[in-house]
Design goal:
By secondary structure, the protein is α+β, with helices and mostly antiparallel strands. Helix content is 55%, strand content 15%. The chain has 16 helices and 9 strands. A hairpin with a 6-residue loop joins strand 8 and strand 9 (402-411). It is extended and about 90 Å long.
Amino acid sequence: PMMLLAVTLSTREVKRKESRYKVWSNIFSLFSDYLNTQHQERCFSSKQCVSPFLIFHCLLLLHPLVYPDLVFKTSLSLIVVLIVGSAASISVLQKPSKSFLLFMISNILVTWQADQLAALLAPHVPAPYCSADTVLLMWQVGYFVPAVLLKCGREMQAELQTFFWEDLTLRTILSIGAASISTWYTPIVVGSLGLCSLCCMAIKYKSSRTSLILCLVMLLSVLTVTRPVKPATVSQLSWSDYQTSCLADKLTAGEQATCHHFTGLTVQWSGVVDRVRILQRRNHVEWMVDNLPEVVRRRTDLKCLLGDQFGSCESKTSQAAKLLCKTRTQQELEEEQKCHLERFSEYQYQVLLAMPGPLFGKGRTVELVVGDELRHTVLAIKTGQTVRTVGKLVSGVGREEVQINVRDISLDLLQ
């Protein structure tokens, strides 16, 4: 609330600029009767209000995304913030319309009696969609969506801000002790409609378009990062059923088309490891360093500065690792050749599983594609071990090779 209060106070500067602009407009209108000062004043007001209200709406949308379980506890400081914020938002209003005043008065009654309204609607509305918060959401959307389409941008922005402070005050008063925002839709409604209105204003008046785009990109990135990803549900499709139905040698065209619809399902299958190899290696830092001029690489010694040196040959276990360490630590080599950037490498692995076959038939091989996040697990797997894998079925019909993009892989201790 403190950040929202600071932004609300900053929007009062818009009204001061409008007052000064109107004074000059009145002065110029004295010299000519043909000047359309009212149109110019509206354009000026709309351009000036884009930036401060853009910050206000971004903060509204960020609060539910970043702090979904935030609780406002009633205190003296919160009451002071609510009073000052409400007063500041009212002062930004130019001349409130009768419809907005009627809506604000009605909102007090609707918010107060929201539970009773939900109970009245319960016989006619399905249970999951009938609650006090849903009633308030439909009430707000029902007024503000037509208002955004009909009213000018400057007036709409001030009304949205004033309504938010009134609704926050009502929620704090009615929720004795503490107010939770986990089911509070007002910030989302006000922020979303406010940004839509600002987008139209920025395009129409060619003002603050770069700032608007940056804020939208920031909101999308925050939404992508903070939104929890629900893991895909593992299907009941077993290897034996899939093999019998979709991996036969003589499938009809209709059966093949049907089996293609299994693609994308998450399966959990077990098999014996036949081979493990690297499919792809990516190292963007190494690529950039290698593409620098040789003089720059030698003088800056970037490989050793960013990476690590080869060493501790005695601790190596494999013959190849010992040979590499011995070769790369020779005294006559240049310093650049004694260092590596392996810490920045990312790998994609292929694990071939020998799957159990039918009673009178040959078993099939399943190709697992494993990402770098499971590197340590893959490196610990040995040929001949039985592993259980969970992943998304990519392809494999008839004689085609079955492929799975792996989400998790582990030793099957039950085998």
